[in-house]
Amino acid sequence: MALSVLDRAKRKFAQEKYGEVIKLLEPCVLDYHESFVFHLYLGLACLHEGIVTGAVSYLGRARQIKMSHPTLLCAEAALALKRRDTNRAVERYIAVLDADPKHRLAQKGLNVLKAHHTPESLAGFIQSGKVKALYPRPGVAEYRRRSVVCAVGVGCLCTLLVGALGVAGLRVWHSGLWRGTARTSRADVSFLTLTKEEYARPLEGSGSYRYTLSKQDVLQSYANAQKYFQTFKDNAAQVEINKLLASNASHSIKRRARMLMDYFALPTFDTFPDEDNYPYVQVREQKGLYLDCWVVWQGMAANVKRTERSVSFNLLVGYDRLTKLEGIVPVFCNFVVSVDPQKPIRVLGKVQMRGDILYLKARSVFQSVHSQSGTVSGDRQGAAAVLKAG
Gene3D superfamilies from the xrefs (predicted)? Predict the structure, then answer.
C-alpha cells in the first residue's frame, strides 16, 4: 500500500530531511487543514530549517486544533527562547511537566534557562546554535497520537532537577527569578506621570462621550495603560487609551495617553504574542475600542488590486478552511507583495476605521510561495516567505 503524503513526510522527518518534509507537506495545507499531526510536523520542519515565520504559522494552527500536546508545547518554548521571551518558555515547559514531571526535553529546557539567566548569557547560547538541541524531534515509531506525554527515559539530570525543585518549586522559581528579566526594559516614560492637579481633576465638566467614567475609572484606566506598557502588552494599553480618548477624561490626561502611544513597539509575526491577538468577532462588536490595535487574522484574499507601490484586497476572515466566513475586511498594504487568492493568507495589521468601516493597515502578510510543481518561488526563505513593509 502506498504511503500517504503525511506518512512519507514523517519518515523524512525521522531522517532529519526537514527541507523535504516541507516540500511534501506545504502544497497539501488545505487538504490537511484540520490535522494536528500535519501542522505539527510541518511547523517542526520549519523550526529546524530556521524558517521562524513558517514555524509560528503552522505551530499556531496546530495549537488551534490541540493546545496541550507536549511536543507542541516544547516547540513553542524553543520558539519563545529564540525570541528571548523567557517567561513564555518557562510557562510552556511547566505545562509539559504538569502532565509528566519526568519529560526530558522540558527538563533540559528549564536547565538551560536556569544556567543562562542573564540576557547576555542567553543571547550567547542562542547565537551559538545550541538552542537547536531543544527542538523536538519526534520519531515515527515513538510518536504518540494522544495528548499524553511520551516519556523518553529518565536521565540522571532530570532526576536531580525534579527531586531538588519539583514542579511546585519551578513555579516559585518562575515567578521570582524570571519575572522582570525576560525582556529588556522599556523606555522611561516617567514624564507621563500625572501631576497633582491632573490627579485631583481627571474629568471634563460636560459633553457627550461614548464612555462616561468616574474619577476612579479614569485614573485606573490611565494606570492600567502605563502598567500594560511596562509589561510589553501594548494592545491592552491601547484599549485603555482608546477608552480614555472616547470618555469624559480631561484633555491633559488624553494628551498624555496619546503621547504614550508613540512608544509602542512595532510587532512582527515572530514577536506578536498569541494572547495579545484580538479575534475578528470581538473587534467587530466594538470597533472604536480596538482602534490602532495590532491583530493577526487569516483567511483568503479576494479582489486583489495592485499599483506600483501598494496592494489592496479583501480578507475573507476565517475562510481559509473554505467552510465558514466570519466577515470581510479590506486590507491595504503600502508595499508591494504578491498575493495569491487561491491560497490561505495571514495578515498582521493595525485596526483602522474609515467612517464606520473597519479595515486593516497591513504591516506583514504571510503565504506559502510554492509554484505548481511544489518548488519554492520568490524570495526564498526555505519553503515559506514573509513579505513586510519596508
Answer: Tetratricopeptide repeat domain
Pick the CATH number of 274-388 from 1.10.340.30, 2.40.50.140, 1.10.630.10, 3.90.1150.10: 2.40.50.140
Q: Which three cell numbers stand for residue 228?
A: 500594560
CB 11 within 8 A of CB 3: yes
The three cell numbers locating residue 255: 494628551
Q: Please give the pLDDT value at position 73.
A: 94
Q: C-alpha cell of 351?
A: 485596526
What is the rounded CA–CA span in Å between residue 250 and residue 253? Answer: 5
Task: Name the DSSP letter for residue 301.
Answer: E
pLDDT along the chain (390 residues), means of 10: 81 88 86 89 90 86 89 93 88 90 92 87 84 84 40 41 44 39 67 91 88 95 95 96 96 94 88 91 95 96 93 94 90 90 93 94 81 31 37
Find where cell 547576555 sits.
Answer: 120
Cα 297–chain centre separation? 11
Residues 100, 68: Cα–Cα separation, whole Å: 12
Cell numbers given for 194: 500625572
Q: What pLDDT, on the 0 to 100 scale, is given for residue 168?
A: 42
Please give the Cα distance from 314 to 137 (Å, whole number): 39
**CA atoms of 77 and 94, how far apart (whole Å):** 10
Q: Name the nearest CA neighbour of 161 among 121, 102, 87.
A: 102
User: What pLDDT does residue 53 have?
Assistant: 79
The pLDDT assigned to 159 comes to: 45
pTM assigned to the model? 0.56
- Kindly report the number of other CB atoms within 10 A of residue 271's CB atom: 13
What is the predicted pLDDT for the residue at 126? Answer: 83
Distance in angstroms (rounded) separating the CA atoms of residues 35 and 29: 9
CATH of 12-178, one of 3.30.1340.30, 1.25.40.10, 2.20.25.110, 3.40.470.10: 1.25.40.10
β-pair type (327-333, 294-306):
unpaired
**Residue 57: Cβ within 10 Å count:** 26
